């Protein structure tokens, strides 16, 4: 899948990702990478990207990863659990998310997503469980 097709997949299935400006960088069943640019409208009063913005990036990236790992006969996923650890803030540049599947079962898919800043430093780590529908 091309990056353009991947971005279209994000935006068509999750309109919030379009509002946030999420851009797909890599979209395969083994790894999904996306990013969003720092923007003042997505920040807290201190100029750091809001935690909810980062969680939306992680959830969207993880959802695409889960979707690409659906078992035969399943058509969609939905997040049933998500846990995020925030380690540092982003005050400029991009937040880049990388999601990988930890478990792809018949009913649930577990995905781990790391968010890094432009220097490659770990900003947040999310583990989420997606139900196969």
UniProtKB/TrEMBL annotation:
<dbReference type="InterPro" id="IPR003736">
    <property type="entry name" value="PAAI_dom"/>
</dbReference>
<comment type="similarity">
    <text>Belongs to the thioesterase PaaI family.</text>
</comment>
<dbReference type="GO" id="GO:0005829">
    <property type="term" value="C:cytosol"/>
</dbReference>
<dbReference type="InterPro" id="IPR029069">
    <property type="entry name" value="HotDog_dom_sf"/>
</dbReference>
<keyword id="KW-0378">Hydrolase</keyword>
<dbReference type="Pfam" id="PF03061">
    <property type="entry name" value="4HBT"/>
</dbReference>
<protein>
    <submittedName>
        <fullName>PaaI family thioesterase</fullName>
    </submittedName>
</protein>
<feature type="domain" description="Thioesterase">
    <location>
        <begin position="46"/>
        <end position="123"/>
    </location>
</feature>
<dbReference type="GO" id="GO:0061522">
    <property type="term" value="F:1,4-dihydroxy-2-naphthoyl-CoA thioesterase activity"/>
</dbReference>
<dbReference type="InterPro" id="IPR006683">
    <property type="entry name" value="Thioestr_dom"/>
</dbReference>
């Amino acid at each position: 899948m091309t990056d353009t097709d991947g971005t279209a997949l994000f935006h068509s299935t999750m309109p919030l990702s379009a509002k946030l400006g999420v851009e797909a960088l890599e979209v395969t069943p083994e790894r999904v990478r996306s990013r969003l640019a720092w923007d003042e409208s997505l920040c807290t009063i201190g100029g750091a990207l809001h935690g909810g913005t980062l969680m939306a990036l992680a959830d969207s990236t993880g959802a695409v990863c889960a979707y690409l790992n659906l078992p035969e006969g399943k058509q969609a996923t939905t997040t049933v659990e998500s846990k995020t650890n925030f380690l540092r803030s982003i005050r400029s540049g991009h937040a880049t998310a990388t999601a990988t599947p930890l478990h792809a079962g018949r009913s649930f898919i577990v995905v781990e997503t790391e968010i890094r800043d432009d220097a490659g430093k770990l900003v947040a780590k999310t583990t989420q469980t997606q139900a196969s529908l």
